[in-house]
Give the backbone structure.
Amino acid sequence: MIKKFVKEALSGKIDIVAHALKCLEQAEKINQEYHYITEWADVETQAKKLAEQLKNGTAKGKLFGVMVTVKDGICVKGVETHASSAILKGYKPLFNSTVVQRCIDEGAIILGKTVQDEFGFGGFAVNVGKGFQKPLNPVDKKRATGGSSGGAAGAAALFDFPHIALGESTGGSIVNPAALCGVVGICPTYGRVSRYGLLDYSNSLDKIGPLAKTVEDAALGLEVISGHDSHDSTTSDQAVPGYTDVPGVVQGLRIGIVKEAFGETINNDVRKAVLEAVHKLEQHGARKIEISLPYGMTYGIPTYFLLSTAEASTNLAKYCGMRYGAEEQLTGVYNDYFARVRSNNFGDEAKRRILLGTFARMAGQRDAFYTKAAQVRTKIIEEYEQAFKQVDVLITPTVPMASPTFEEIKKLTPVQCYAIDQITVAPNLAGLPHMSVPCGKTGNLPIGMMIIAPHFNEQKIIQVANAWTHQ
Amino acid sequence: MDTPIVIGLEVHVQLKTQTKLFCSCPTFATEPNTSICPTCLGHPGSKPVINEKALEFGAKLSIALGCKIAPHIQFARKVYFYPDLVKNYQITQQDDPLGRDGQIVLDDGKVIRIERCHLEEDPGSLIREANAVLADYNRSGIPLCEIVTKPDMTSPAEAREFLKKLMNILGYLGIFDQDICIIKADANVSIKEKNYTRVEIKNITGFKEIERALNYEVERQKVQDVKLETRGWDDVKGITYSMRSKEEAADYGYIVEPDLPTFHIDTQWIKNVQSQIPELAHARAARWIKEWKIDPVDANVIATDIEVADLFEQIAKKVNPITASHWVRREVLRLMNDNKQTLKQTQFNSEGLTEVLELYEHKKITNKIAQNIIRELANKKFSPKAFVKENKLETVADEGALEVLCKKVITEQPKAVEDYKKGEEKSLMFLIGQVMKHTKGTASPQIVRELLISILK
Amino acid sequence: MDVTPELVKKVATNARLVLTPDEIKRFQKELSEMFEKFAILQQANTKNTKPSFHPIDIKNVTRKDEIGKCLDREEALSLTKHRTDKYFKGPKVI
């Protein structure tokens, strides 16, 4: 949809300002019911700038006139950025994140910030911070969007105009809500996209990626934001190939079905839908091979939670009521002041993960938890390397079930909530590119299929996704 | 362990780079909070990118201290909460430091072992008020090299000598500027009579203060109760004060810094860095002693300051090295110290000094005249040869003319003559001085002395 | 791994969190459950395995020692009300 729109927009056929204001109006209306957006950007000013460019012939860009929403934890200069946490209320960054700047440079209009689990801590987008409203599933308002990029996925599903949502994944937070909201979500290889300007959850696990209605639109978003960035020492200097012209051909492609991802913990309809999808791909020439990933599937959850929270607990240390964000009266000695501001403004899940992570790296515990988890991560990476010697891509359900109701979620203990991540944590730990595409329904609730490829092989997952959606 | 005093040091040296360790802010600013950016303010979403010069300087120092450079180095987060630490963690090195197992050898041959050298960022600086602090983040992110010794020092004097030698090496490497860079230390001090109960004194700034603090603390431990604790140094009151009990020592909860890659150090890079290290003071002085038979004390004093050492070697190309060493030490260095100047701040240069010392060596000018000219060379550049000619300062060796002057002085100074005849050597010196005065210092003192002795016989 | 209220308090203090008695009780229960579930990690065979602190092999990224643009002081100070005209303000230290 987007490519066509951009062509028209650049040719001057569209009144950009009118279009932008119409998009804003629709988004605001949807937002009143579904609560996807936490802050609006100045759409009119941006649109007027683009109109000027059209007038003096300087208009250009792959995303010209396209609306882009940005997950709340990704910095947009001058627009309140909180990662949906009360501790950053009022904080307006003094710089744009690289991904946002790249979108702007390609002519995009930043629409607003999308709501998320506080700092990314959650798999349902119910753990929004104090003062934020949780987003509602686009298909059923009594159900969760999935998380943590819940607002992004919901917006991608319901906004009916050319739109790309920028989301972020640490343990599965792009593909999880993409699956539960029935949209496409791409999580690139770790280091493919710059994290400069991303409020860190877990620096060795965080990746920014696009969500959209179609594979093509998401692929275009990925193309725009990818590439080396001198501001982020962990970005790769590998060239960015074209992601939007990958043919959907699976003849001869070897698809690995991860045995452990189709077991008893998976909802029957979900399992059926994914296996049927794979079967259809076989009919188009792909070959199915059964793969076992015991390390990733058995130890993924503890490895992920210990490593990510250890890093997160250090990342969140900076939020202490000084220099920016939430602050209180400067009474008391520094430790008391810091503790007061933090305790008053962090939500429960944030406190929980800070405690878990602090513990995992304390002297005397570090070897058994933090270091051990890092060793198991090596094993998981090696396990995938072995698997990719036999297959080109891996396919699993994205999450074990369709969207739960808020009531059902309330009944779960925190560790039971973590179970939704059981399939996505392993590829995230290994930094592998992965993607969720809609592959069926249970009742009216969307089901997502996850495709995983080796490092820097985003084209392969797009290839399979194209084949699937066009068959 | 049996020594009366045990001291270990953790010295933090600011490296003389243009920019900070993890961002491109300048390392020097005059107004508070003007050298700042999202990274050194720890703004959410900012990321560190390491300064290649800091790595190079850190490696240079580690190699110069005899350390082995690690093949892989990583950075770590050290978590603690303080208003001067913008991220409430410091990026430092924990398990994989830059260098290990070096040493500094003191003049008496004692070895002070260096356990490790590593790189880390400095926090900002605070001004304490009654009910708040004022924070200036110009220093936040400044590159430091931390040098950790084993507790091998057995007196504040040894610690002082260790630091002096360290400063000397830093000067030679050109990675530390005394005027703008800061040196800080944490010290661990314990004494035998209190069962070696260890006290840590944190954050002492400046070479002189480090020695002051150590002296104070050793004396304090003799007369006060000593417990395992961390103390601060108040340089205004000249005392250490209790900060926190060591048992409640902060658990820093180190993790590997995930925003920075692992650095693989290859042997070629180490070789390149090593090739840039000049001959250090100790080796240089040893060479002069061996090759030129320079007096060891003169050699070590001259070698201490790299610029003076370079100057000396230039002069020694044309002038007898032993002669050159005497004049550099006793005149050039003395004048610099008297005026509290570095060599760069004077007008001394090798051409002028070589010229004047050549004149002296060839007996064209007397000791006194040479001294005077060197004093002038401190303040302006000129050709001593031309100056001597213009002002007729060549040594007068004409015995005839000198004999006339000697007889004149003998007539003018009857008391001194009488005293000399009574046996007072001092009076002879006085008479010689009078002749020198008449000749404005150009008379050859040896010839005058011989003439006076023969006349007065 | 025994998660006691004292342990929860100790970790909370380290992390600069003040917990109510109710929170301590609740977190104790929840963290205990977590550690029970996570105990399976100890069964993983990691003999002679190097830890991975990144999923990808990244090495030797450095930057030249050249001065770049700084933030305007007023812009930076304007993000907080704890400030003077030149300094950031913070809570007192001893």
In short: The radius of gyration of chain C is 23 Å. Chain C is about 35% helix and 5% strand. The interface with chain B takes residues 14, 16, 53-54, 58-71, 73, 76-77, 82, 84, 86-94 of chain C (CB under 8 Å).
